[in-house]
């Protein structure tokens, strides 16, 4: 299994002077890391990381960074997201799973969900890969899922913006047809924004035709986490 990226740890590194040593960071568990990030570094995580990630602030990464609850409750949420991220990574190794703050950024690239040029329809392979996510989403029902669609730079920008929204909607509609509640989803098309590869090559354009998920805690998960830390 590939290693899951954990962007949240960068916030701890930024706060390094607040810990007695690197050993202190290494010995903290996931819940403690989440609590520390939420309680002390919420501004760092949302500001420094958001700025450093630049354009990512407009997409899934920005949505995840914007959903920080903070405190010990944030650590509880982060621990649950750790587990969900590991399960997604296990069932869909072709995707990019990034744990950041108290949420998950999931990139369904050409290895997981591929779109042909000027198409928003899902291939049989794409549907098979989305099917693998359904049980994980069912296991963690107390999350919101925002889906961002993207295109390559081929064609007019306004056309691509519309197409990207249709791609995100195709993914949402398919997951909904497989039993994932429609109330959990929001969809947004970002067109040619935030390319992850060069649009000058066929391979690069294929990589840019993708969808990204921002998986964040819903109100129930937040309230449950707050109640848990009070007991």
Automatic annotation (TrEMBL):
Q: Do you know which InterPro entries this protein is assigned to?
A: Bact_OuterMem_StrucFunc, Gly-zipper, OMP_bac, OmpA-like, OmpA-like_sf
Q: Which UniProt keywords apply?
A: Cell outer membrane, Membrane, Signal
List each copy of the OmpA-like domain by range. Answer: 102-219
GO cellular component labels:
cell outer membrane
The residue range of the signal peptide is: 1-23
Entry's localization field: Cell outer membrane
Q: What is this protein called?
A: Outer membrane protein OmpA-like peptidoglycan-associated protein
Q: Which organism is it from?
A: Flavobacterium glaciei
């Amino acid at each position: 299994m590939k290693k899951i990226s954990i962007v949240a740890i960068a916030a701890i590194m930024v706060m390094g002077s607040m810990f007695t040593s690197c050993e202190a960071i290494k010995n903290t568990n996931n819940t403690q890391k989440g609590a520390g990030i939420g309680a002390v570094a919420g501004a760092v995580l949302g500001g420094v990381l958001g700025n450093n990630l630049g354009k990512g602030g407009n997409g899934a990464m920005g949505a995840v960074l914007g959903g920080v609850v903070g405190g010990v409750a944030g650590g509880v949420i982060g621990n649950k997201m750790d587990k969900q991220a590991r399960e997604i990574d296990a069932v869909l190794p072709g995707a990019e799973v990034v744990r950041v703050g108290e949420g998950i950024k999931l990139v369904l690239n050409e290895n997981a969900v591929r779109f042909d040029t000027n198409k928003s329809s899902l291939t049989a392979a794409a549907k098979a890969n989305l099917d693998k996510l359904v049980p994980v989403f069912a296991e963690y029902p107390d999350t919101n899922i925002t889906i961002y669609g993207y295109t390559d730079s081929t064609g007019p920008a306004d056309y691509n913006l519309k197409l990207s929204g249709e791609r995100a909607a195709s993914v949402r509609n398919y997951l909904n047809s497989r039993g994932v509640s429609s109330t959990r989803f929001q969809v947004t098309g970002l067109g040619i924004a935030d390319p992850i590869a060069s649009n000058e090559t066929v391979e690069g354009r294929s990589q840019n035709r993708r969808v990204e998920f921002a998986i964040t805690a819903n109100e129930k998960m937040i309230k449950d986490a707050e109640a848990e830390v009070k007991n």
